[in-house]
TrEMBL record:
Keywords from the UniProt entry: Signal
Protein name per Swiss-Prot or TrEMBL: Lamin tail domain-containing protein
InterPro entries in alphabetical order: Lamin_tail_dom, Lamin_tail_dom_sf
Species of provenance: Streptomyces sp. NBC_00119
Domain LTD: 24-153
Region (Disordered): 147-174
The keyword Translocase appears for this protein: no
Gene3D superfamilies assigned: Lamin Tail domain (2.60.40.1260)
SUPFAM superfamilies linked to this entry: Lamin A/C globular tail domain
Signal peptide as annotated in the record: 1-32
Length: 174
């Protein structure tokens, strides 16, 4: 009986080793994929001021206090040429010849202004973002959704990270 146990024990050990090798192979492959993702560019919508402070009077100053921040969380610069930032109603801003440095943020203002390294302007004469509820969507140059940020009345909308955004806000200019 002891010989039978040793054969059974050897078979069990061999099966466990084979299973471990198989799991190790999948884990190595998964970590290689994760490692590849870690080196890929990571750009996200990091904040928004969708209700410009004060009275929404339509002045350029008020329009430029309405903005969305786009942040590169990686260490490497990302070429945003052809990327878009859009509102739920289809109003879209397209980045042209813009390179976002590593660990940097660019603020996309609604109004008219002079683009710089930290601020770009949509050059609009009307508000882009709805104060009550809207969704900002960032897409890459291949039209793939990179990130979203939602607020207000449609609180059940989820962003690409699977998180629900509960940042409701009062008032509205639309």
């Amino acid at each position: 009986m002891s010989a039978f146990m040793s054969v059974a024990a050897r078979r069990t050990a061999a099966a466990a080793l084979a299973a471990g090798a198989l799991v190790g192979t999948f884990a190595a492959s998964a970590s290689a994929d994760a490692g590849g993702r870690l080196h890929r560019d990571r750009v996200e919508i990091s904040g928004a001021q969708y209700d410009s402070p004060g009275w929404d009077n339509g002045t350029n100053r008020s329009l430029n206090k309405e903005w969305v921040d786009v942040t590169n969380t990686s260490r490497h610069a990302v070429n945003l040429d052809g990327w878009t930032l859009s509102a739920r109603d289809g109003r879209t801003y397209t980045f042209h010849h813009y390179r976002l440095a590593g660990r940097a943020t660019v603020r996309v203002h609604s109004g008219v202004g002079r683009d710089s390294g930290r601020d770009v302007y949509q050059d609009r004469r009307r508000y882009v973002w709805d104060n009550r509820s809207d969704t900002a969507t960032l897409r890459d140059d291949r039209n793939r959704r990179v990130d979203t940020l939602s607020w207000g009345g449609h609180r059940d909308d989820r962003d690409d990270r699977g998180h629900r955004d509960d940042r409701g806000h009062h008032g509205g200019h639309r």
